[in-house]
Amino acid sequence: MQSPWLVFLDEIGARFEEGPAGVVHFGDERAEVAHAASGTVLVPLTHTSLIRAEGEDTAVFLHNLLSNDVKKLPLHGAQYTSFNTPKGRMLANFTLWRDNTGYLLQLSTDLLAAIHKKLSMYVMRSKVRLSDITPEFALIGVAGADAAAALDAAGVSLPPEVFTVSQGTVQVVRVDASRMVLIVPVGQAASLWQKLASRGAKPAGTAAWRWLEIQAGVPQITATTQDEFVAQMINFEVIGGVNFQKGCYPGQEIVARTQYLGKLKKRMYLAHLDVAEAPAPGSDLFAPEFGDQACGKLLSVAPAPQGGFDALAVLQIASFEGAQVHLGSLEGPLLTFGKLPYVVS
């Protein structure tokens, strides 16, 4: 039986791409992105999914596996964190928050099954239950200058500050000043969507949310880009996704050595490509100083309001400084670079 939430989205004109990624749009992705840049949007976050972790050993269990300090996460608090290989490469990154019954982990939909299975392998005798609760809840993104006002008018309680979570039938995670993630029981999602739309929030698809994340410099690991990057390569420590004082977790030694002993050679940058077709995440990048050897990869891509595509690109710092980075080959389209909203060394 199909989820009533997905049935509703189909009824209001949402179009899903084929495949497991949950990518959706409403007919004109670039127009949706343009509205996200200047107005308030309402986005079905079907490209992300939810795992609930609960049980008396859950805090210690997650703390021992993830890159951030779960033990110190307060009730109704949220954080970025990641699950890594022993070599420190990211298998998935999450928005993690704590509510009255346990912890919720939001991750890319195309990683859900594999990560749920892999995390479950570590449970063993721990008093922890891991559940895919995606079918029970709709994840809805609301973003823009009037996002808070729209939610307030719809009767939804707002979190007091960034990386806190409001509690109630509908949970709201404030991921930055103007972006909120709503966790809504599927039976109530259509009604709430309509209330928010009637208060000026315009429906938009996955590309609009990805574009907002790109502009915020927030990475999202997907099936295409997993097992590629150490945390610092995607600025994850800058946005608060790594705690360097906590104990061991898979990949901790590599991440810590990169921070304190090694010289970081790659970073993530905001880039623009003036091309007609969307480049694929994971596409190789090239620069003259590295010849035929790739100097980096695209991580996230979305249509740009002014045309072309904006992206988060992970590449050699030396190549960024040389400002001659090309897509696909040394003869490929040239990247131009923008400014992230935070400082990287």
How would you sum up this structure, described in words?
It holds the Pfam family GCV_T. This is Folate-binding protein YgfZ. Residues 30-231 form the GCVT N-terminal domain. It is built from nine helices and 19 strands. The model has no long low-confidence stretch (mean pLDDT 96). With 345 residues, the chain is an alpha+beta fold. The chain has two domains: 1-263, Gyrase A, domain 2 (2-Layer Sandwich), CATH 3.30.1360; 265-345, Aminomethyltransferase beta-barrel domains (Elongation Factor Tu (Ef-tu), domain 3), CATH 2.40.30.110. It has helices at residues 4-11, 29-38, 58-63, 112-121, 147-153, 186-198, 206-216, 252-260, 317-322; strands at 15-16, 24-25, 41-44, 48-54, 78-84, 90-99, 102-108, 129-132, 137-143, 165-166, 171-176, 179-185, 202-203, 266-273, 284-286, 296-303, 309-316, 326-327, 335-337. Helices cover 23% and strands 29% of the residues. The radius of gyration is 20 Å and the shape is globular. Helix 2 crosses helix 7. The strands form four sheets. The protein has a six-stranded mixed β-sheet, with helices on both faces. The chain has a six-stranded antiparallel β-sheet with strand order 18-15-16-17-14-19. Strand 11 and strand 12 form a beta hairpin.
